[in-house]
């Protein structure tokens, strides 16, 4: 049996994806326990009433910075032995507009894309509307992408 698809990539058995389910579940539990999915914590952050969310976001940024530095410094490779490359990014004004729209949506709904599923999993089923809105917004962006400032 050939385990290579038409793109030349190795195919995995369906049960190899269970690791993603496991890690995603742990990530969701971490979100719930750290109160990242709490609408009240998010509102505190946007009202500048608490350091809680800024501490969590700052910790994530610090971990990301250290991780990228380690990857570059020690030429870390993927689990399959491939070189990890990080493409340079160019700043443009569209990032400001996108960030503002994202921030307004986050402040209004009390949810960003990361914890949406964890919020739904905790029983906040009204977040399904936010999830559908995020999907619709992604579609709209894809549709108008070529006409937007990049």
UniProtKB/TrEMBL annotation:
Keywords: Membrane, Transmembrane, Transmembrane helix. The chain crosses the membrane at residues 20-40, 52-71, 96-118, 124-144. It holds the Pfam family Sulf_transp. This is YeeE/YedE family protein. The keyword Membrane applies. Coiled coil: none annotated. The lineage of its organism: Bacteria, Pseudomonadati, Bacteroidota, Sphingobacteriia, Sphingobacteriales. The keyword Nucleotidyltransferase does not apply.
